[in-house]
Amino acid sequence: MEGYDLIGDIHGCGATLAALLDKLGYHQRGGVYRHPRRRVIFLGDLIDRGPRIRLAVQIARRMVEEGEAHIVMGNHEVNALAYCHPDPENSTHRWLRAHTPRHNRIVNETLTQYRDHPQEWDEVLAWFLDIPLFLELDGLRVVHACWDHALIDELRQQYPDGRIDADFLVESSRPDTRAFRILDRLTRGIHIPLPEGIEIHSGDGFRRQSFRAHFWARQPRTWGDVVFQPDNLPGELEWRELSAAELARLSHYGRDEPPLFIGHYWCEGIPAMPAPNIACLDYSAVKFGRLVAYRWSGERRLDADHFEWIRVPRDELARPSPWEIDFD
User: Fold this and answer.
1) Which of 38, 155, 216, 288 is deepest in the core (most CB within 10 A)?
2) What is the value of pTM for the model shown?
3) d(CA 168, CA 244)
């Protein structure tokens, strides 16, 4: 094998995923995309928002089950599992993830596209629960949002391969538990709360009271040293000093560590590395950005020339797809 092709957040852009696989030299045989010398690693967030969610999931799932790909769990897979899992301890709210207007909006497109395929959706949820939270293989590391050494070591004590179970999922719905800390950090990353009364009006239509922080700054001093999201911090907050408590929230991934691939952060523009050994592959595909892959062949220092991508067309829903798979 020559190496791995790591693919960022797809969010239901199934036809574009098929086009990217074709560009990378993968071809369908027996209903599965295959390459004679390479394997894919999906970085999670297959679902929600996009026009061909079932297609995206079916392509990835078939590749993983046939040994042509690996995958890590994204926060949107976590959301779907918790949204659809009954809460055994709370008959009032009934579900591990409350069915609030905000949560309903996030998962609505996925549930709509599976509405006439309930058995398939149940099978997909079971498959989601079998997806590991992290991968470490052949000299690289993969996690959806944040590689936190201490929390990954803690997870490995109970789940050596990173695959959680329903008990862990239930525990993770309680904010004061170790399971919550692990799942939240690995799939959602580090969040720093904004001052009271200040919000970010995000480009996806949500209002947020915190911002996403990265974990590779050597000696960060200000909020601007660690902010990692397309939305700007309001006012002069970029220059605000990190408090001792905020510094304690941060993880750190050193430049001497193995190459790490993440998604999650809604990057924009031309793909680039934020650090010599870290690549973020989420380039806002479902916002008509880019569906991005990195072609890794064993190098310790990553190279921007190894990025490949497909621009997501605004007519993805309408245009006919020669790559469509017959699910039924």
Assistant:
1) 155
2) 0.93
3) 31
User: For helices 118-129 and 101-114, what crossing angle results, to 10°?
Assistant: 120
Helix axis angle, 53-65 relative to 118-129, nearest 10°? 50
For residues 140 and 100, is the Cβ–Cβ distance under 8 A? no
Bridge-based pairing of strands 69-71 and 278-280 is unpaired
Burial of residue 228 (CB within 10 Å: 0-12, 13-18, 19+) is buried
pLDDT at 264 over 90: yes
* Residue in the structure block whose two tokens are 């190279």: 303
Q: Where would I find the H helices in 226-311?
A: 244-249
Residue 10 corresponds to which tokens in the numbers above?
């797809």
CA distances from 325 to 9, 60, 109, 122, 269 (A): 20, 12, 19, 19, 30
Distinct helix (H) and strand (E) counts, the chain: 9, 16
Structure tokens at 131: 């997806």
Q: 313 burial class (0-12, 13-18, 19+ CB within 10 angstroms)?
A: middle
Strand pairing category for 38-42 and 69-71:
parallel
Residues in Cβ contact with 196 at an 8 Å cutoff, skipping those fewer than 6 apart? none
Pick from 51, 50, 57, 31: which is nearest to 128 by CA? Answer: 57
Cα 98 to chain centroid distance, Å, stands at 21
Map tokens 């497909």 to a residue. 310
Residue 189's nearest CA partner among 144, 226, 135 is 144
The tokens of 50 are what? 């996009």
88-128: pLDDT as tens digits: 987 677 999 999 999 999 999 999 999 999 999 999 999 99
